[in-house]
Each structure stands twice: as structure tokens, then as C-alpha cells.
Design a protein that fits this description.
Blueprint (H helix, E strand, L loop, with lengths): L6 E4 L13 E5 L3 H13 L3 E5 L2 H10 L4 E5 L10 H13 L5 E6 L3 H9 L4 E5 L3 H32 L11 H13 L6 E4 L6 H10 L8 E5 L5 H9 E2 L11 E2 L1 H4 L4 E5 L6 H13 L1 E2 L8 E2 L3 E6 L3 H6 L5 H7 L2 E4 L10 H16 L5 E2 L1 H9 L5 H15 L4 E2 L1 H4 L17 H15 L4 H8 L3 H11 L2
Parallel strand pairs: 2-3, 2-4, 5-6, 7-14, 7-15, 8-11, 11-14, 16-17
Antiparallel strand pairs: 1-4, 1-5, 9-10, 12-13
Length: 471
């Protein structure tokens, strides 16, 4: 083609690990002769072709279907040469997925435009009239590079999600925690399902990591999911995955947490807050290791060890009819109860020192210890938020401290979490919210679902506030 229109080749990531024998190409141009010439060329090379006559049509096609590559003109309005229309389309596609490889096709007279496109994210350009062999080679090469890039990004993302909490620190100076760690050493190497019981912030997640670290599955993934914070609309998709087109916005296949944990360990946090309607779906996969992704009838299997955790009295939940007894039996082959921090005060000095070292390094502050008053305040505090509250208190103190030693005032602790002077009017709005959430959780014995109902919040909204306040 000798005509001086500019084209961009945009190669989206391939969403399947298999390379199809007939790559699907979107060709967008306002000139019918260009579309026809490219259609004949690419079809003869075994490509499947779809055409679009405008940026809007091209965008609609890219949003609605998956392509292995897109060949897109820069100019769509007659007698325009600025390339703005194509550049705008390129920018939108970059926003959709900045990893998409881009190749510009342009006349020699528009090399400067090709350079601009490359500065905006294009990878290469070819000139008009194009050389058929080179154009085909670029399409095939970029498709392969795109697949490799997509695969690498997916692995990187999964590794961050699955192993982000890989650093393991278990501090057990107290007799209560020494008993817990003794149980971890004894049952960790087995494949038995374990139920962890304890208050919010007591360290159930850390114990789950310890169990995985001493198991025969330690070289596989430890996958964590807060099942109590999942709404019914996303529960199955999150745990079992979904296939493309299963529901609105399901534009690609998604791997669920059970499949990601295959061969490893799945940690189901806040298990008591799973609604009764979803417990039956969970029971099947716990029993047989079988599940179907949302929108698929194909049964998949996953070899997963399950560690679950709750701050609720699961026996009481079963007695009240809110939790299935058969699911409870499947989950608690081994039951480990983690004591609250107020019952293991021997751990407080070592935990405080660990958090101080970590937070000082994080904020690059030369804070080396606690003075005597601060140490005594740490030992005297009731710690309703347990280890998580201690971590947040030390973080706050590191930020507030003006010397190399943290003082009691830097910790800003109040006895048993009560308001200053016992008066709500002396508290900030954030403090009032934290105080009310503590009281409500205590009233319902740590049951997040019931506390959320009483506060007029969704479970997920209450979980966000619990995390924010370090409760």
C-alpha cells in the first residue's frame, strides 16, 4: 500500500496459555481499500480478521472480544494528518492495559509521528508501503512476546498475592503461646485440617503461616482469603474462579483461590461469618476437593490442606443454627486456641521490641527502645485489639517520638480503651468510632456479623474499620 495513512499495530495479551493456530486480528481503518488489502494479506497467512471503520467501532470490538492483535489507523477523518484520533485511541488502550505491545505503521513522511507514538508506548514501527513478510513477522513476534509478558505478569501478580506474607515471626515467651507452638510442631507436618480459634488480632494468621512452614507443603503456595468479608456475589468467583462471559465484567477466565492453592495450603479466615447459603458450596469442596468455576460445568479438583480461623464460638453458632455442623467437623480435625495478649503478657516485651525494630526501619527513624514508663504502660494496658493493636501502638509511637527512646506519652494508651477522662465529648470522631466498634464487638462476643448488623454496617465495611483502627 502506497497511501500515506498511518496505522498502529496493538497486540493485546493472550488470555490463554495455548497459542491458537489462527490468531484473531482486528483491523481498523476508514478506507475500505486498506481494510480489504490487509484482510486478504492476513487471511492468506492464516489469521482470522475482524474490521472496524472508526475508533469507536475499534474500541467496542476490543472491549467485547479478545484479539491476538489489532491493526489500527491513526487518522480517520478525511484530509487529516495529525494522527490525534489514533493517538487518543492508543492512550485509551494503554489505560485499559499498559502492557500491550504497540507497533506503528506509517509513511516515511510521518516518521516523526511514529516516534511520538513510540514515546507514548509503541514498541516499533514499519513504513508504507509495507513489506508483507516483515509485517507478518512483526505480528507473530509481538503476539508471542505478548503471551510471554502476560504469563510473566500473571506469575508475578500471583506470587505477590500468595506469598506476600511469607516472612514468619512467631514470638512465644509465654506458656500459653509455647503450648500453641508445640501443637504447631506436632500437627504441622500432617495434612489434617486445622481450626484456629482466638480474638481479632491475636495472631491466627501468623500461626497459620507457621503451620504451613513446617508442613510437607511448604514449597507450595499458602493462599489466604477472608471468606467472612466476601459478599455472596463474589464468594464463588473468589474461591472457585470463573470463566469468561460468566457474568457482566467477566472478560477473562479467573483462577480461584482453591486452584491457586493446589498442592499447598488454603487459609480461610473468619470462617464463622460465611452465610448459611454458601456453607453448602464450601462443604463440597472441603469434602471432595471438587468444584466448578462460575459459568463452567467442568469439574476441577484441588489437593488443598485447609486451615480456617474464627473469633466466634463455633459451637454456639452451630447450636443456634447459623453454622453447619458437618462443615465444622470437616474443618476442625485439629483445634488450636490462641490466647489473647492480655493472657500472655510475657510476650509483650519481645513483641514490642520486634515491632519497634520493624517500624523504625520502615519510617527510617533512629528509635532504639522504650523508657521505663513506656515499658510499664505496655505491660499494664488491656490490649482489647491484641497483637494487632500493639503493632499499631508502636507504629504510632515511632512516628510521634522526638528522641531515640519511646516514652509513655508517645504510646498514647488509655486504660482498657476507655475515652479520655471517661467522656465521649473529649474524643475525636475517629476515637469515638473505634470505641463504639470495640464495645459492640465485645457485646456480641466478637461475632462480626452480628456486630455489623447492630452498627448498621455491612460486614466488609466493618472489617475495613476494624483494620483501620487496629482492633
Amino acid at each position: 500500500m502506497a497511501r500515506g495513512h498511518e496505522l498502529i499495530i496493538i497486540v493485546p495479551p493472550i488470555l490463554s496459555d495455548s497459542v491458537t493456530s489462527s490468531p484473531r486480528i482486528l483491523v481498523a481503518d476508514d478506507q475500505q481499500d486498506v481494510l480489504e488489502a490487509l484482510r486478504l494479506l492476513l487471511k492468506s497467512e492464516g489469521f482470522l480478521i475482524e474490521t472496524a471503520g472508526s475508533p469507536a467501532a475499534a474500541w467496542a470490538a476490543l472491549e467485547g472480544r479478545e484479539f491476538d492483535a489489532a491493526l489500527i489507523d491513526l487518522n480517520y477523518t478525511r484530509d487529516t494528518t495529525s494522527g490525534r484520533e489514533g493517538m487518543d485511541l492508543l492512550a485509551r488502550i494503554r489505560e485499559l492495559d499498559e502492557t500491550l505491545p504497540v507497533v506503528v505503521m506509517t509513511a516515511w513522511a510521518s516518521v516523526s509521528l511514529a516516534v511520538e507514538a513510540m514515546r507514548n508506548g509503541a514498541r516499533d514501527f514499519v513504513s508504507k508501503p509495507w513489506e508483507n513478510a516483515r509485517l507478518i513477522a512483526i505480528l507473530r513476534t509481538q503476539a508471542e512476546l505478548s503471551k510471554a509478558l502476560r504469563h510473566g505478569r500473571r506469575l508475578e501478580s500471583e506470587n505477590r498475592a500468595l506469598r506476600g506474607e511469607a516472612k514468619l515471626e512467631v514470638i512465644a515467651e509465654s506458656s500459653g503461646m509455647k503450648k500453641v507452638m508445640d501443637m504447631v510442631r506436632r500437627v504441622g507436618p500432617s495434612d489434617a485440617n486445622v481450626l484456629l480459634l482466638g480474638e481479632n488480632g491475636a495472631g491466627k494468621g501468623t500461626v497459620a503461616q507457621a503451620l504451613h512452614a513446617v508442613s510437607n507443603r511448604k514449597n507450595k503456595a499458602l493462599v489466604t482469603v477472608n471468606v467472612g468479608g466476601l459478599s455472596e456475589g463474589v464468594f464463588e468467583s473468589e474461591l472457585f474462579g470463573h470463566v469468561r462471559g460468566a457474568f457482566t465484567d467477566a472478560r477473562a477466565d479467573r483462577v480461584g483461590r482453591f486452584e491457586l492453592a493446589d498442592g499447598g495450603t488454603l487459609f480461610l479466615d473468619e470462617i464463622a461469618n460465611v452465610t448459611s447459603g454458601l456453607q453448602s458450596k464450601l462443604l463440597r469442596v472441603v469434602e471432595a476437593g471438587e468444584f466448578e468455576p462460575v459459568g463452567s460445568s467442568r469439574t476441577r479438583k484441588a489437593n488443598v490442606r485447609i486451615i480456617s480461623a474464627t473469633n466466634a464460638d463455633l459451637d454456639a453458632e452451630v447450636a443456634a443454627g447459623r453454622f453447619r455442623q458437618d462443615l465444622q467437623f470437616r474443618l476442625n480435625t485439629i483445634e488450636i486456641r490462641i490466647p489473647p495478649l492480655r493472657d500472655r503478657r510475657e510476650d509483650i516485651p519481645a513483641l514490642s521490641a520486634y515491632f519497634l525494630s520493624s517500624q523504625a526501619a520502615r519510617y527510617r527513624k533512629k528509635v532504639t527502645g522504650f523508657d521505663a514508663a513506656a515499658t510499664q504502660a505496655l505491660l499494664d494496658h488491656g490490649w482489647p485489639g491484641n497483637v494487632r493493636e500493639l503493632d499499631h501502638a508502636v507504629e504510632r509511637a515511632v512516628l510521634l517520638s522526638s528522641t531515640d527512646r519511646i516514652g509513655a506519652a508517645d504510646l498514647a494508651l488509655r486504660v482498657s480503651g476507655e475515652p479520655r477522662g471517661g467522656r465521649l465529648e473529649d474524643m475525636s470522631l475517629e476515637e469515638v468510632e473505634a470505641f463504639l466498634i470495640k464495645k459492640t464487638l465485645s457485646r456480641f462476643e466478637g461475632n462480626v456479623t452480628r456486630a455489623a448488623d447492630a452498627l448498621g454496617l455491612s460486614r466488609s465495611a466493618l472489617y475495613r474499620r476494624i483494620e483501620r483502627h487496629g482492633l
